[in-house]
Amino acid sequence: MYLPEQVILSRTIPAQSAAEQVEAVVRQHARFVYQVAYAVLRHPQDAEDAAQETFIRVWKHAKELSGVLNQRAWLARIAWRVAIDRRRKHPLIGTDEDLPELPANGTGAEASVIRRQQVALLERMIATLPRELQETLTLSTVEEMTSVEIGEVLDIPESTVRVRMLRARQMLREKLQAITERNKDGMKRFKAGAEV
């Protein structure tokens, strides 16, 4: 008879208290939970609040913690749902305070502006994808979650995750090609007008 690793360990190692288990989970996964929340909310303070709420929920369900086989996926699922609920209650409103300052050293201002424009374009393109593709793509980029973990978070089969990722990438590629072609046509017209 095969016994899971956790069952064997629970029989040989004295059990931790619920508080110790939660503390260990917070220490190990706090950054990851914050990143999942930030991927949804896109605001540092909101992401911190969502991460705290996630760990409050973990504390309330501390008795279940020892039975969780994949803590990372379990935490991502909780953080994802907390962040989605928070986003529904408080829609995103951009302010000047959210704009990052240009660094004084490192890359030049022009390169930083171009990079920010590229990131903004990519975010706008992702925002035009259907919701289920956005969610899958976002989770795959946060801490590079596996398709199994994403499936657990979104409560869908792994094969569906892979299909969604393929569709999202294909749609983004098509959108980027359309933008590139539009820019090439615009440059040709601009050059033709300048030569006259």
Q: What fraction strand?
A: under 5%
- Runs with pLDDT <50, length 5+? none
Rg over CA atoms = 22 Å
Number of domains: 2
What spatial form do the alpha-carbon principal axes imply? elongated
Question: What can be said about the biggest beta sheet?
Answer: none
Number of distinct helices: 8
In the CATH classification, which architecture of the largest domain applies?
Answer: Orthogonal Bundle
The total strand number stands at: 0
- CATH fold naming of the largest domain: Rna Polymerase Sigma Factor, Chain: A
Alpha-carbon distance between the two ends:
84 Å
Report the mean per-residue pLDDT as an integer: 83
CATH superfamily of the largest domain: RNA polymerase sigma factor, region 2, helix turn helix motif
Q: What structural category arises from helix and sheet content?
A: mainly alpha
Highest CATH level, the class of the largest domain: Mainly Alpha
Fraction of residues in helix:
over 70%
Strand and helix order: HHHHHHHH
